[in-house]
Design brief:
Blueprint lengths: L2 E6 L5 E7 L1 E3 L7 E3 L4 E3 L4 E6 L2 H16 L9 H15 L15 E6 L5 E6 L6 E3 L7 E3 L6 H7 L7 H18 L7 E7 L2 E4 L2 H25 L1
Antiparallel strand pairs: 1-2, 1-10, 2-11, 3-4, 5-6, 6-7, 7-8, 8-9, 11-12
């Protein structure tokens, strides 16, 4: 299982991308590994990842190749052209025998971010009829473990906060910690990246530990509040 949380700042001049590091290796108990899931092509100013099954793993490799050879145009910032290119790619990489008639659009797909002073983020489903959205609000901000109730935290608080990088890190990492608590068999340790002032960087372990501590303090404050009402 994979989960992604992508949150843009109020002015859409920065973003926070929170994911996790688990990877299922096959049938059996404890067959999980810890992996990085976000690919960052610094020269091309693109970051991407995915969720779903083995089809997505293959698609990620092909997508990286096409970014390198320039066959998927992302740099001009034209939203409609980018979405069309991503839908065409999704259609190309889905094997014919996997084209199920009624498959849900959130079954598998890619998240693609074009980076810089005004980053854009897209999610494209890799299904029989690919759907591509620009991510800019709470409705498409989470992908992957769609049944995880922790996603409601983003749905509620993201439109109500000021959407600074600091707030979005707290929101995203708290949500991911809750997601892991609710699905410890499928969600791994948190990972987070930030695009700010045109630069895309990964949070350090010490930074992640700070936000985990803040998340646990929030839990404690909620429990204290509940106990006061008892």
């Amino acid at each position: 299982m994979t989960m992604h949380i992508i949150l843009l700042t109020a002015k859409r001049d920065g973003l926070v991308w929170v994911t996790e590091r688990s990877a299922f290796l096959g049938a059996g108990h404890a067959n999980f590994a810890t992996v990085g899931k976000i690919a960052h092509f610094k020269d091309e100013k693109v970051a991407f990842s995915g969720w779903g099954d083995r089809i997505v793993l293959e698609a990620l490799g092909h997508f990286g190749d096409r970014i390198k050879d320039g066959s998927i145009p992302l740099s001009d910032g034209d939203e409609e052209r980018i979405k069309q290119s991503l839908r065409s790619f999704a259609n190309d990489v889905l094997p014919f025998e996997q084209r199920q008639q009624m498959e849900r659009p959130d079954s598998r797909g890619l998240i693609v971010a074009t980076l810089g002073e005004s980053p854009q983020v897209f999610r494209v489903s890799i299904v029989r009829q690919p759907v591509c959205f620009a991510i800019y609000d709470q409705l498409n901000a989470t992908a992957g473990d769609v049944e995880n109730p922790a996603g409601l935290f983003v749905r509620y608080y993201y439109p109500r906060c000021n959407k600074t990088i600091e707030e979005l890190l707290r929101l995203g990492l708290h949500t991911m910690r809750l997601a892991k608590e609710l699905n410890s068999g499928g969600i791994g340790e948190a990972d987070a990246w930030v695009c700010e002032h045109g630069e895309f960087r990964q949070l350090t372990p010490s930074e992640l530990a700070r936000y985990e501590g803040l998340s646990r303090k929030l839990d404690s404050a909620i429990f204290d509040f509940l106990l006061q009402l008892a």
